[in-house]
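Consider a concrete sample entry:
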Amino acid sequence: CVHRGDAELAKHWRRRMVELEGAVEANGWDGAWYRRALDDDGQPWGSRESEECRIDSIAQSWSVLSGSAVGERAREALRAAEAELVREDDGLVALLWPPFDTTLRDPGYIKSYPPGVRENGGQYTHAAAWLGWAFAKIGEPDRAMRILRLINPIGHALTREAADLYRVEPYVLAADIASVPPHVGRGGWTWYTGAAAWTWRLGIEVILGIKRVEGGVRIDPCIPTNWRHAEARMRGPAGNLVISIEDPDGVGRGVLDVEVDGKSSRDSVVRFPEDGSDRRVVVRLG
């Protein structure tokens, strides 16, 4: 609305945004996480009161990714999602838990999937990527990387046993991974471009912190604290950026200094060279 010059409509939507934010905080908080939804009778899903779908990851992730001020509630919600939904032994991040199965209430289409398959309590990879993104946004690089590692299909085929369990290609993203016996760990719908795009963005834009913007790239890493160093090379239309991220103290985030071709830079955007050369960028964290 602002870009279109409609100041009145922009004012209306800003006011509505504040109203919705207040409504979420007043009615959506369940005591340790955010509820997923209310049904037509006003009963919650994604609540401690729910026998099935007690907690859902999307509501927790988007309490951070929505752009609202990140308070202690959002941090507590992410910790709850990690505790309830991240299944390290099974190599997956469930969308919700427990799955819909015998409840007499009707949550709609989602219940048409068997328990633990796709959105019904399996890993839905879009949502798993959002959870990793949310951890990075609150300054938890090791937790963000843990999620990316679980999503990475290569990790599901490091041994013959793992590959036999996963059953699908280890070089593309699966939209979903099953979470309930006898199919725990089995990949589902592969070559899923949306899941691939979100996972790619989690790794490149969020963890490495390298994001294309108009005129170049902005670099704001959130790397695992045990990395200490990372490198990337980006091809531009007429020149390249060779990026080194230095984190000698293992803090993981917080840009201390940016050096471009040996000189300190205060510009938030690093521009590509236009003469076919490599521009060397050093980003120091601290």
